[in-house]
Amino acid sequence: MIASAASAGKGPSSSAAGRPQSQAQVDPLAGLRRPTDPPWDVYLTGTVFLDIIFTGLDSAPVRGTESWARGMGSSPGGVANMATALARLGLRTALAAAFGDDHYGEYCWDALEQGEGIDLSASRSVPGWHSPVTVSMAYEGERTMVSHGHEPPPEEPAPECPPRARAAVASLEPGKRAPWIAQAAAKGTRIFADVGWDETGAWDLAGLADLAHCEAFLPNAEEAMRYTGAHCPRAAAHALTEHVPLAVVTLGAEGAYAVDGRTGETASVPAIAVEALDPTGAGDVFVAGFVTGTLADWPLADRLAFAGLTAALSVQEFGGSLSAPGWAEIGAWWREIQSHTDQDPAALRRYAFLSDLVPTELARPWPLRRAVPTIGFGRSA
């Protein structure tokens, strides 16, 4: 197992939501692009929240008392976590979402479109609709969240006809179909799916009807075992390949395991040892890393290692989209890790593929420090 050379620290240091897109700049698909390609690498749809994150809490708030946080940040959340993670890895990302016409919605729209370079031409601003808000309190490596939102507008947020894209990321809901998934798959879009906790308790794969349109399914270990009835996560991954070509099961501190049912190939990559400050959005970042490697035609083990690395980097920062790493973070980590003589040589070889991906001009000191944005200040000219 590789040990991370340093963590991001406990102060308010995170990726700025208004970061210029020019800082992202490795194109992992550069050698594969053709004039006839779809205009977008990845298409997403879902609900955007305004996330407000309180950091620097020593413990959970106590009933009847006032707690002061040493840091605070704000950023687009919800589906914006995944969209930001994909964009920062250099993928051309399109998002269809409804935005409130309040100041929160304006801030989220600007942060995603201008700050991250995400295409919002399929999104819309809804007059009179209040933006959903989540307040997150991070402490002791965990977080507590409180959310508020009004009824979403009709047809929120997916358009009737999704745009052409190489891939799409979908969050499956038990007992529900999302018509855009079948439409996108019919156009040749490769669908990557995750799933949330089944509140019904049924855990019936037949209830995930849209799984039939998916190329890859990425549940966590508990979800995979409950859906398949398997006794361990690895057995669950193999069982899932009866329903989807590629199964990827995340194992928390143990890493991840993947099975390609089409070829029989398997891959297992251990987790990177890091000090986790806030797990918010780590699952989204893992999926984004795996999608990036898959679209770039990397070997299965490299895709799994890259996804785990990006997720590990994200939990060393606070917030959802705030914590999504870009190539500067990846390059800084790789250079720092190689500088330590006590690293396991076999573990270093596992990430050697990064040497051909990260250009030297992205060299940055490690650990990185960025200011946490708030909606109280406009960006300077």
TrEMBL record:
One Pfam short name: PfkB
Keyword Transferase in record: yes
Organism the protein comes from: Streptomyces fuscus
Keyword presence, 4Fe-4S: no
Region (Disordered): 1-33
Keywords linked to the UniProt accession: Kinase, Transferase
PANTHER family noted in UniProt: KETOHEXOKINASE, PHOSPHOTRANSFERASE SYSTEM TRANSPORT PROTEIN
Record InterPro entries: Carboh/pur_kinase_PfkB_CS, Ketohexokinase-related, PfkB_dom, Ribokinase-like
Compositionally biased residues, Low complexity: 1-18
Protein name: PfkB family carbohydrate kinase
Top-rank taxon, per record: Bacteria
Residue ranges of domain Carbohydrate kinase PfkB in the record: 69-325
GO molecular function: kinase activity
